[in-house]
Amino acid sequence: MKEINMKYGRDKMRAFIEEENLLEIIESNDFKKSKTEDEIIAEALYNPIDSERLKDIVHEGEKVCIIISDITRSWQKPYKFLYKIVEELNEGGVKDEDIIFLSAQGTHRKQTREEHEILLGEKLSKRFEVYDHDCFDEESMTYLGETSYGTPVMLNKKAVESDHIVITGAIVYHFLVGWSGGKKSILPGIASFKTISANHSLSLNDGFGSGTRESVCSGNIIENPVHDDMMQAAAMVKPAFMFNVVMGPDGNIAGAVAGDYITAHEAGRKLVDSIDGVNIRSKSDIVIASAGGAPKDINLYQSIKTLINAKEAVVEGGTIIVLAECSEGIGEIKDINDMILNFDNMLDRERDLRENYTISKYVGYFFCETGEKYRLILVSEIDPDLLKNTKIIVVRTLEEALKISYDNNQNKNPTINLMPHGATTLPKLV
Length: 430
Hints:
Elements: E1 2-8, E2 11-17, E3 22-25, H1 37-46, H2 54-57, E4 64-69, H3 78-91, E5 99-104, H4 113-120, H5 122-127, E6 130-132, E7 141-146, E8 152-156, H6 157-160, E9 164-170, E10 173-174, E11 178-179, H7 193-200, H8 225-235, E12 241-247, E13 253-259, H9 263-276, E14 277-280, E15 284-290, H10 304-311, E16 314-323, H11 334-341, H12 346-355, H13 359-373, E17 375-379, E18 393-395, H14 398-407, E19 416-419, E20 426-429
Parallel strand pairs: 3-19, 4-5, 4-9, 5-6, 9-12, 14-20, 15-16, 15-19, 16-17, 17-18
Antiparallel strand pairs: 1-2, 7-8, 10-11, 12-13
Helix pairs in contact: 1-3, 11-13, 12-13
Pfam family, one: LarA_C
Protein name: Nickel-dependent lactate racemase
Domain LarA-like N-terminal: 8-205
């Protein structure tokens, strides 16, 4: 027997499995960093991909809009690289008064002055004001036309009316667009709510009752209309320069890419794959995935990344066991609660999602849909009554989850994949 210990909240969950049943323990790839964060940032800025250096693109008297991620992405350590970007602009002749910092809020709330300081760092925040994009304030936006998907593109005027747009952020796996970063600074970052909703609704198949689109998933941009639509919106404003970081398993900047927002992002995607894209030999009958403990499993909403990644390691209709303490229940966002609590069938959920699409509704829908297509067992402290209208099974221990898995598995000797850091590792079948 093999003892397994996986993170759960601020503790661990233990169980025993037969060693011969274990296929793989899916962990991030070994990654060794030989340079400091400052060296990584400088090297990317001074050696941009398919682009001149930023200082050679801009000129004195031109207005430059730097788009930054909001406080929910402070793990990107923007204070480490934003001042270097400003240095490049100043070297190119751009004065401070011609530089605008615009926070890509998407649908997120406005931020406080203290949060702006966290993002820019103490010195920069004294020199510059940060403007928070408001997706509901259509008077602050410019209509630029429609994409081939029919998405009306309305973007923040401060960016549209600038001479140059510089987009910043980080590249990680994203469950709708494949990878974050790059064009996401434009859509959803500085887009109207109507634009965002129309774009994100492309995650559903055409035709009522057809559910989610398989090609819309982490680590994929091929035939992914959400990605294609975002690229079309970004092309309408043609960002002059991109700077994106890639984070390592230790939470520090492991790499950075700069330059052309299309080709530099492609290089960044490859770097993410080299760290968090884990090749697996085969899918298993059962996958056991931990979100990685607190705060990644603080509520059901935050646990979506774990579920999406875990799906890639299990056979069709197999058993997915997700370890997520969910000390704060489903989460505070009203839409995900409505999607899970207010319906008892998938057609009504899908109808509501199509009529008024939001990301949080989609997250709730995805959990429920996965419960229909797989045996989804949640090891959690969440109140089971909250999920009574779904097919998600809630238990308190990993041992209970395994017993249910074995008792209901057609294969009496089921194979198992383990994912100790399910929120960040993406299994890829080779």
